[in-house]
Amino acid sequence: MKILVTGGTGRIGANLVKSLLAKGHDIRSFVYPGDASRANKLDGYDRVETVVGDLRNFDDVKRAVEGVEAIYHLAAAFGGPFDNLQYLNINGMGTLNILECIRSELPNLHRLVYACTEAIYWRLGEAGRFFEEPITEEMVSRYHHMPYFLTKWIGEELCMTYHHQYGVPTTVVRFATVIEPSEFLNEDGLPQLFLFSPVYQRYKGQTSDDPEEGEMIKTIESLWTGEEKFLLSRNPNGRAYKQEFADVRDIVQGLVLGLEKDAAVGEEFTLGGAAVFDWEEAVPYLADRYNLDYVDARLPTSNYFEFDLSKIQNLLGYQPQHDLQSILDTAEAMRRGEDTGLIPTGVRFGGKA
């Protein structure tokens, strides 16, 4: 098939393109002009056409969809120099432009796979994320944080509306937080997600009107000795942090299944991973692996959740493979310059590699 991948040079898109090429597909990659620093990431691959354009420009989108048989819509305003209006125009209206072009230009489209986010489950008004039970697809929050979370949810609603109203064969995947292994270690080769220094820097000098929160901040400051350690982060109630992540390789597996499996049409799936990190287990393991001490402290912000992946497993046969050890092994191999089969993330918005 000829497949359009919006955001085809991104951390997920580039690795998806590589996987689709291996399956014999031809690719058109749609790249935002502001992503000049990685616009040529796929130039070394045969059967890849790169089209530069803006999702907000209907003519650009129409040119991108011309003649394709399937579309992965991964591109979005995320973490860049955008305000709320730009987020809505790119993530909302940009998605609408794609859908309208599908209606007018692609009556026989095989599949539209839309990338949404786990963040549509987070409850507006609650500090942090604490879920006693695994999160299912039905647990979407009633309201969503601006700008990214809300505008990605708007895109999902548009895609599913066009599926039910106009017959666009749509699949939605809601990504867990994605790990691309080359980003997982800091400059010293340590897994930065579990380090104490970033947490200390975040709370250093802060005060709080809440006495319990104030005590947590004081404890964090008192534990810092000036030397790096791991941190066994705990929720305010004392339970260790737990969060589900997804290695980019598992994300790609789920995306490919969304294209290939007929059962995916008209469905929304949480696309989580095998990397369910429980700080109570992970931090002692990391301390031993890297020969580094760790401290134990409660943090003011809650973080405790994992996903129920039974829907995507049962309907599509999804089986995530990459846990903490796999991610660390791959990250360390990439630091040594070994070929792991992954395309590294690269640099965003014109920065230097």
Structural description of this entry:
This protein is an alpha/beta fold. The protein has a domain at 2-180 and 245-273 and 307-322: Rossmann fold (3-Layer(aba) Sandwich), CATH 3.40.50. Helices cover 35% and strands 18% of the residues. It has helices at residues 13-22, 58-65, 84-105, 148-166, 196-203, 211-223, 248-260, 279-290, 310-316, 324-335, and strands at 2-6, 26-31, 48-52, 70-73, 111-117, 129-130, 170-175, 177-179, 230-234, 242-247, 267-271, 275-278, 294-298, 303-304. The strands form 4 sheets. Strands 3-2-1-4-5-7-11 form a 7-stranded parallel beta sheet, with helices on both faces. Strands 8-10-12 form a 3-stranded mixed beta sheet. Helix 3 (84-105) links the parallel strand 4 and strand 5. The two termini are 33 Å apart. 43% of the residues are buried.
Multimeric state: single chain
**What's the architecture of the domain at 2-180 and 245-273 and 307-322, going by CATH?**
3-Layer(aba) Sandwich
State the secondary-structure class.
Answer: alpha/beta
Largest sheet: 7 strands, parallel
Between the first and last Cα atoms, what is the distance in angstroms?
Answer: 33 Å
Topology:
Layout: E1 2-6, H1 13-22, E2 26-31, E3 48-52, H2 58-65, E4 70-73, H3 84-105, E5 111-117, E6 129-130, H4 148-166, E7 170-175, E8 177-179, H5 196-203, H6 211-223, E9 230-234, E10 242-247, H7 248-260, E11 267-271, E12 275-278, H8 279-290, E13 294-298, E14 303-304, H9 310-316, H10 324-335
Parallel strand pairs: 1-2, 1-4, 2-3, 4-5, 5-7, 6-14, 7-11, 8-10, 9-13
Antiparallel strand pairs: 10-12
